[in-house]
Amino acid sequence: MTAVVSVVSAPWPAPVASGPLDAVVELPGSKSLSARALVTAAVADGPTTLHGALRSRDTELMRAALTTLGARFEELPDESGGCADAALRVTPAPRPFPTRADGDAVARIDCGLAGTVMRFIPPLAALADAPVVFDGDAAARRRPLAPLLEALAALGAEVEYLGEPGFLPVRVGPGDGALLRPADPARPDLPHQAGVDASGSSQFLSALLLVGCLLPGGLAVTPSGPVPSLPHVAMTVEFLRGRGVTVDEPAPDAPVGARTWTVHPGTPQGGTLVIEPDLSNAGPFLAAALVAGGRVGVRRWPGGTTQAGDAWRWLLPRLGGAVEEAPAADGSLTLTAVGTGELHGIDADLSAVGELTPTVAALAALASAQGHASRLRGIGHLRGHETDRLAALEAEINRVGGRAHQTADGLEIAALHAGARLRPARLRAYADHRMATFAAVVGLGVPGIEVDDIACTAKTLPDFPALWTSLLTDQEAR
Ligand SMILES: O=C(O)C1=C[C@@H](OP(=O)(O)O)[C@@H](O)[C@H](O)C1
Ligand SMILES: C=C(OP(=O)(O)O)C(=O)O
């Protein structure tokens, strides 16, 4: 069983590449797809069998949360036909979600540092038999939550802040059961209506869409402003549709503030699902080929996907690499990054793919020592990620001798003068898996990099240190 508590490790010396790489990696399931699969399976009309679902701290916390709401999970012997993980059978929870299994004690849900748990589960607590208390890591208590909780309260849920208003810990419950009744008793077919400011996280919108189908009449959600990470919203929509739920999306040219997503009422179908590998976590491995030179392939790359990580196809060529695709018999691809060690700077709006930023920033920092400047834009919301990623990237790039500074909505990395090199340093991970892998990518090209807490990669990729080392082991074996 993957650890649900967060374990801090001893400093980890990042391996340095001694020459071109030639490796192919198999990565576990997508965190974001696994989260949606677990949530929809837990509220489905019958059992679901998941193949390839991620086993990591975030998904273990998600399973624990859904168990608290009455869902059941059972590992099956591996018949997954090549998927890395054994199959998981999910028995859905009865409704209202029974949280009182342990008597009258109020149920508690630990969100850890998982945005998916702290955003996707509170709406479900509004459909439980009693209020639920949510809390998480110290860093989770700083992550934005207020817009979602305000939207839930406006819909009629009970929301009581137990600490700083707008943040974890919070108690969420059904209130007087408004969400269990039609919005308009005279027109039970009409959806409930919600507004939400999702400019801080697309997960607020996804969370409302995921619960929407369970409400009598469904739910229409109109974000009041821009929404980052729109591929993740598209993933939520596709996921619900794949489970038989009807979702209407706004026209792409509808003005910001007047875009409505409508989820029609219906229970997601059970059945069988295969989860794609995590393409965001593929980033550091593909980036390694650009840093060290050579080739790194990722197996089972989907032919079509809503994952933000598919953007590596256009990002890596802009950073100095090439991308090759080789079709496999099952319709998937092996996507291979090819590099020479020569990097380019990049000027890019990453708002749609914000979670790729730390890996892009690692390449941009290494490119700065080759005389190239970079500008990463549209990512102010990263200040509310696992840590304030703009502050963390600024601090860690400067710690290795780079010249980075935050802007209102991003990060600028200046070109270093000819002959300047990045220097050895112990880099901080800030409990953030993507800051840890940022440091690993930098360390591949800069001797003497240590990472203070590589174990935090367990949030989404528990095997990261071994997988990362295998890139170089393959190198030595040639
Ligand atoms: O819905 C999801 O699974 C996610 C949405 C995005 O969140 P933000 O919109 O907060 O960036 C992304 O960065 C996060 O890693 C996962
Ligand atoms: C922002 C991230 O995670 P979370 O799902 O916790 O928001 C991430 O993985 O980059």
Automatic annotation (TrEMBL):
Binding site for phosphoenolpyruvate: 31, 115, 143, 203, 389, 434, 459
Enzyme Commission numbers on file: 2.5.1.19
Places the protein is found: Cytoplasm
Reaction it catalyzes: 3-phosphoshikimate + phosphoenolpyruvate = 5-O-(1-carboxyvinyl)-3-phosphoshikimate + phosphate
Catalytic site: 355
GO CC annotations, alphabetized: cytoplasm
Record keywords: Amino-acid biosynthesis, Aromatic amino acid biosynthesis, Cytoplasm, Transferase
This protein's record includes keyword Cytoplasm: yes
PROSITE patterns: EPSP_SYNTHASE_1, EPSP_SYNTHASE_2
Pfam families assigned to the protein according to its UniProt record, in alphabetical order: EPSP_synthase (PF00275)
Protein residues bound to 3-phosphoshikimate: 31-32, 36, 201-203, 229, 355, 385
Subunit text: Monomer.
Protein name: 3-phosphoshikimate 1-carboxyvinyltransferase
Organism listed in the record: Actinomyces ruminicola
